[in-house]
Amino acid sequence: MVRAARALLSAVTRLLILADMADVMRLLSHLKIVEEALEAVKNATNEQDLANRFKEFGKEMVKLNYVAARRQQELKDPHCRDEMAAARGALKKNATMLYTASQAFLRHPDVAATRANRDYVFKQVQEAIAGISNAAQATSPTDENKGHTGIGELAAALNEFDNKIILDPMTFSEARFRPSLEERLESIISGAALMADSSCTRDDRRERIVAECNAVRQALQDLLSEYMNNVSYTNLVLASFL
């Protein structure tokens, strides 16, 4: 029973982190693929190589546009939606210019103007990709890494909590372990609450996060009760031999 309660607590705790991040992480994954395809286009050595690499870049762009458009519809903050729309528009515009600028550079690599033009277009595409990423996570360029740090800290707290709930039922002490476990859990829930309060979190997901917060609190209490019951049973068995 202790093992089952512990597994349940671990499962519902993880849902707190996953509740509103699945779509965002999927979009970020697509952005990474597009960035890699963009770099491949930049490193093309001849026009045929450029054509092949740009074809792959175009395929990934189509996938990205679909995912980004869906995320744009999900964003509740009008400012976030506008930023996403602007970034998608800039990406589409500059991606169209990317091939001709790269082709001109390959034909005239010694002409400074063709290199400068190609580099400019590449920079515009990169900035558009960053704009999509920022809008999806409701961050600005100045705190772009803040969202990643927050997610990382929450995940680290979760992993630490998972380790802390693995206790020896035979030696469990409520006075020793209950306060620290409850404190750690509330820290995790506070991080999840920040996600729920985000203006870019959909109502249904906000409700799910709140529900999971309540569920995980109850799961911890159930786990602690199982530990206490196990200790009581052990003491009873030992007393019978005295």
TrEMBL record:
Alphabetized InterPro entries for the sequence: Alpha-catenin/vinculin-like_sf, Alpha_catenin, Vinculin/catenin, Vinculin_CS
Bilayer-spanning residue ranges: none
Signal peptide region: 1-19
Lineage: superkingdom: Eukaryota
Keyword set, alphabetical order: Cell adhesion, Cell junction, Cell membrane, Cell projection, Cytoplasm, Cytoskeleton, Developmental protein, Differentiation, Membrane, Nucleus, Signal
Biological process annotations from GO: cell differentiation; cell migration; cell-cell adhesion
Main location: other
GO molecular function, one term: actin filament binding
Pfam families recorded: Vinculin (PF01044)
Subcellular location: Cell junction, Adherens junction; Cell membrane; Cell projection, Axon; Cytoplasm, Cytoskeleton
Membrane topology: Peripheral membrane protein
GO cellular component terms listed in the entry, alphabetical order: actin cytoskeleton; adherens junction; axon; catenin complex; nucleus
Recorded family membership: Belongs to the vinculin/alpha-catenin family.
Listed name of the protein: Catenin alpha-2
Species in which this protein is naturally found: Anas platyrhynchos
